[in-house]
Write a structure and sequence with these properties.
Strand content: under 5%
Distance between the termini: 53 Å
Shape: elongated
Structural class: mainly alpha
Oligomer: single chain
Radius of gyration: 17 Å
Largest sheet: none
Length: 75
């Protein structure tokens, strides 16, 4: 139960992201990385949903102010 509690408490990975503790188990680090990857994917998908093919998204603050390209679909 202690290990499961640690996974839950540490999944944000950083104190500045709201995590009360940093990951101290391999599984907690993996969970944190997966959570971060999921959040990044959602940010990009939401930004690209508003962009026409062949254009760039607005800058995404959560991803270091990067813009993402919406490729054109081959016909």
């Amino acid at each position: 139960m202690v290990l499961l509690r640690h996974l839950i408490l540490a999944h944000h990975g950083r104190l500045e992201y709201g995590s009360p503790v940093k990951p101290q188990l391999l599984e907690a680090q993996i969970l944190h990385q997966l959570d971060d990857l999921d959040a990044s994917i959602v940010e990009v998908q939401q930004a690209l949903a508003e962009v026409q093919p062949g254009e760039f998204s607005p800058r995404i603050f959560a991803l270091d102010n990067r813009k993402f390209y919406q490729p054109t679909q081959p016909e």
